[in-house]
Write a structure and sequence with these properties.
Keywords: Hydrolase, Signal, Virulence. By secondary structure, this protein is an alpha/beta fold. It has 14 helices and 20 strands.
Amino acid sequence: MGTGPGKKAARWYAAAATLAAAGALAVSGTTPGSADTVTPSAAPPATSSATPSAAPTPSATARTLSPQALAQAQAKAKQVRTKTPIKHVVVLFDENVSFDHYFGTYPKAANTDGTTFKAAKGTPSVDGLTKKLLTKNPNQYDPKRLSPAQALTCSQDHGYSHEQLAYNGGKMDKFEENVAHDTCGGNNIYQAPGLVMDYFDGNTVTGMWNYAQNYAMSDNSYNTGFGPSTPGALNLISGQTHGFYAVDPVKGTNVTDAGVVSSSDARGVGTVINDPDPAFDDCSDNNHTAKNNLAAGTGQNIGDLLNRKNVTWGWFQGGFKPTGTSGAYAVCGSTHENIGGNAVTDYSPHHSPFQYYPSTSNPRHLAPSSTAAIGYTDQANHNYDLSDFDAALAGGNLPAVSFLKAGAYQDGHPGNSDPLDEQHFLVNTINKIQNSPEWASTAIFIAYDDSDGWYDHKMAPIVNGSRDPATDAAALCGRAKVLSGFNDRCGYGPRTPLLAISPYSKVNHVDHHLTDQTSILKFIEDNWSTGRIGNGSMDQVAGSLEGMFTFGKARAGRVILDPTSGAVVTRSHH
């Protein structure tokens, strides 16, 4: 794993953990729904030091829950009420897919290879790839169908600025020039000119299409902003990519680094538009063998709001469980091979958004006190390995709110993953939930962190402007109001798939209401009456997901799929 950082860095990080053990809180002083202002307690002071005495530090108490304390926490959780019949929300948060890339020709599949797909009679159409877009596209290349044999592809450019340039002021015709990666390294990866334009159909993403057939899907849902994985993950849990600052991983001091935060103020607080690793994670910087600056967050997220309401919750990620230690740090070293035979490290720190916040991080990757304690505040501080979700579900202890991130080989991210490996994760997880007693009161959302830069023909309205000449395309982002005055949050960004799977989902339904990543956040806030994040969070303008549900009566049954083919195995109706 390489050599670890020096003793000085270890002392800084250990000091942060010591304060964490003392239960030091470092969250926003605002209350839910408060005005859009950043409170002084939510940002680092003007000093250059990011040591525990000067900046937020992790607040999870490094302790196990005693049986008595757990019983008290469970009693409080049982008193929680919801506004809908939904008692459990599970968000399957996958990687890097545009709507047209997976659903552009839905519900019509070529049926020349792969798993045969035939749509049910009366299946509604989507705003997808028309004949003109397929044969006379304004881009350099027309979109081409990708077969199951071409499932593992290169990842495209999905940078904040480059995606805006691809939009070309709304003409949507400069994808090849700005975000295309036609070639890449790795074994058995499909590469071709114009790849950025291409799409899969129901013969490859069969499971996704079958879920759309039997539950609800949106064709008008978008990334909250432009850019890669980390901004998308942060928007999912807080609706906010502003309020972060850069930290030197060795010295533990605040630094100026435009690659970590842009548009920073005099205190160094700015906006995340790239993929810096989180400051409160042992496994950041390739298990602390590199020295890239890290990002630390201020303010609050949905975890803080749920904690205040005694609502159980957790983030579950593949590879989170340490495989060993190196010096003072835990090491996340587990790997799996994707369908191309390429070994992929399971855990990606910059995909783990709660690790950016001192109040909701688990820097040491500590295991929960027990299976019964999953979802409650203990040494794990609500951050878990993916296997802990399976244990909680099997033990009848499913948290009220669960966010799941697959190991990198199954998360759908092109280059290290693919639709077929992703399908295994999605189907196996959903099958387990549907075969559990909790299914009767569960809503599962399949959502994505970003589009990977894949072509999508539809542009969202720009509801939040930005006027940073270094990063923003003025013709696209310069006209709309800059909400709360925070630059580099231009959006909405690219269109991505969004599915709602629940007994209360509308069946074979395509929802056209305008929504974004923070609509999931808003759904959770409203269902558990937490109030809003505040401090400029985009949850304040998010559209509602209720158009995907019918809460008066459960209508949708269990649909068990085959994880390899994506085909329906059994279907039961209410």
